[in-house]
Amino acid sequence: MYFGFTHGKAITTFYEGDYEQLLIDGGFNSGSSAYFSGGINAWKNLRDGKYVFPPFIQNNVTPSVANNKPLQQIFYGAPGTGKSHRIKEIIKEHGIDEKEQVIRTTFHPDSDYSTFVGCYKPIMKSVPQTYVVEGNEKPVMADKDNQATKEEIVYDYTPQAFVQAYTKAWTTDKPVILVIEEINRGNCAQIFGDIFQLLDRGDDGVSEYEIKPDKALENYLRDYFAGKDDVPEDIRNGKIMKLPGNLYIWATMNTSDQSLFPIDSAFKRRWEWKYMPINNHEDKGYQIEIGDAKYDWWGFLVRINHVINDTTNSEDKKLGYFFAKAKGKTIDAEQFVGKVLFYLWNDVFKSYGFDDPIFSKGDNKKFEFSDFFMNDGNPNTDTVNLFLRKLEETIKMEGLPLEIIKDKQNEAQPDSEPQEAEA
Fold first, then answer.
1. What pLDDT digit, counting tens, does each position of 4-29 carry?
2. Contacts of 320 (CB under 8 A, 6+ apart)
3. Domains in the chain, please, with CATH?
4. Which residue of 129, 184, 359, 392 has the smallest Cβ count within 10 Å?
């Protein structure tokens, strides 16, 4: 290696691309090839101003995000608290290219190791065809001079979100972020498999323990990293896998879904946990519009979350500000009934009962979910308004009115009558 480094200039001048011949000429044994190439690459990097000396120093870059953001963290909280939105904000704040540096995936009950890491899949691919040359007894396979190809279904290794992020991170100095939405909707132990071991990171952000990929993944990694001399050799040849220091894995988790797939404590310890509280986003100014009446979205959330907390004694079932997406800052009757009230009736109070006074519509009768619909399936705005006003009357909040009074006939008149136009 020392010889390769100190004679790098002469070697790259006279033996560029044919180092094996130089080893033979110099009387080196074949086992010296890796060290020899490492020395030459070190000289190249010094020449090019990269100051990276493989294989001693791996790709332990310290991107701008690394100063104050964990490499692995889970954003968790009630539905609609803006977990995914917060990740997008961080990405934007640090000038990270969403298309080039961010890989996204979503876990679900059918997710497994192959859908997260990769596997062989049938794909359409241009395959060289045989052709007949006059005078030859056997057909000849197409080559670069004869591009006879045909689209056929072949089996090829298809990298998924994790491998896409992993390979990208090893070949750039920029931060690469793998975003996993709804991480607890999948079986993490099954999905991560042996990758779990890579989540233990050192101070430099590189995995403290390595894993050996299966043969299919090893072959893919070796082909992908071929010619990328800045990647450490043991990573480049696909024999082992380690997470580089610029690969971030961030995930979101709705606490109300935590029973879907439990996450074991050993897995949890590998992550930083960022709680997302329910906050008022006054700058958004969301409103509920039911017929001619309008209601303040935040006023509704404060009241209904108060009832949810008293009934369930839990934060998990509360609603966050972004639970419903407002079109033009307005949540219409159809969205309010179909998403908000449906969630309250079927995912919150169904298990605890409808004993709170807000569910009483008079004459010892309670609101039923079917009351909020007309015979044709459209929202019954009269019943929805009755429920919202009942909520405001029952849960009084000083200085936080729920209904926004809109009466066009009683709007303030101008101070003076308009002047007639001069002749």
1. 666 666 666 666 556 666 666 666 66
2. 77, 78, 79, 80, 81, 82, 276, 278, 301
3. 2-47 (no CATH), 64-117+160-273 (3.40.50.300), 287-408 (no CATH)
4. 129
